[in-house]
């Protein structure tokens, strides 16, 4: 199955980082394409996007200053299918991408994504207080957008809203 292409560029405000693409995303070639994934609804409800986008429009979000990548590129049924070797290689590749593109914020879509990348054992929701893995790139941890997440949708949206509030201060 094909990897879902990154959407990265210099000067981005936020890069959203997932574990890896779902099988559906791999089939369609777009990020967060599983219809049970709430990612696009969360972005809209939090104010980060002016309208509800479809997964097929993921590349359009570059115009809003948002990019997409994953710690592992290979599509799988679940994160439990990712190997230790894939995580190790993915950590290095992600560090390189963040150092090259230098987004203002790296938003990890799920605590597990952040802890795999940072090798830290704990994370809280929102901006991380520890020194970032890549100097100059602020780290934000948001809940996973998977439909399997048990957290109420409004709580998830409220956490993403912190990103909106931070990026729209003084506008």
From TrEMBL:
<feature type="domain" description="Uracil-DNA glycosylase-like">
    <location>
        <begin position="6"/>
        <end position="153"/>
    </location>
</feature>
<dbReference type="InterPro" id="IPR015637">
    <property type="entry name" value="MUG/TDG"/>
</dbReference>
<keyword id="KW-0234">DNA repair</keyword>
<dbReference type="Pfam" id="PF03167">
    <property type="entry name" value="UDG"/>
</dbReference>
<keyword id="KW-0227">DNA damage</keyword>
<dbReference type="InterPro" id="IPR005122">
    <property type="entry name" value="Uracil-DNA_glycosylase-like"/>
</dbReference>
<dbReference type="InterPro" id="IPR036895">
    <property type="entry name" value="Uracil-DNA_glycosylase-like_sf"/>
</dbReference>
<dbReference type="GO" id="GO:0016798">
    <property type="term" value="F:hydrolase activity, acting on glycosyl bonds"/>
</dbReference>
<protein>
    <submittedName>
        <fullName>G/U mismatch-specific DNA glycosylase</fullName>
        <ecNumber>3.2.2.28</ecNumber>
    </submittedName>
</protein>
<keyword id="KW-0326">Glycosidase</keyword>
<keyword id="KW-0378">Hydrolase</keyword>
């Amino acid at each position: 199955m094909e990897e879902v292409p990154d959407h990265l560029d210099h000067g981005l405000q936020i890069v959203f980082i997932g574990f890896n693409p779902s099988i559906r995303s791999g089939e369609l070639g777009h990020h967060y394409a599983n219809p049970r994934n709430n990612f696009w609804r969360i972005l809209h409800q939090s104010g980060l996007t002016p309208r509800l986008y479809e997964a097929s429009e993921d590349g359009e979000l570059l115009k809003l200053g948002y990019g997409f990548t994953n710690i592992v590129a290979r599509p799988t049924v679940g994160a439990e299918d990712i190997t230790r070797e894939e995580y190790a290689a993915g950590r290095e590749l992600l560090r390189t991408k963040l150092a090259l593109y230098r987004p203002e914020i790296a938003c990890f879509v799920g605590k597990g994504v952040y802890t795999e990348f940072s090798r830290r054992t704990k994370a809280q929701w929102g901006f991380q207080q520890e020194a970032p893995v890549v100097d100059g790139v602020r780290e934000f941890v948001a809940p996973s957008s998977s439909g399997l997440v048990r957290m109420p949708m409004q709580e998830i949206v409220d956490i993403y809203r912190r990103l909106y509030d931070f990026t729209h201060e003084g506008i």
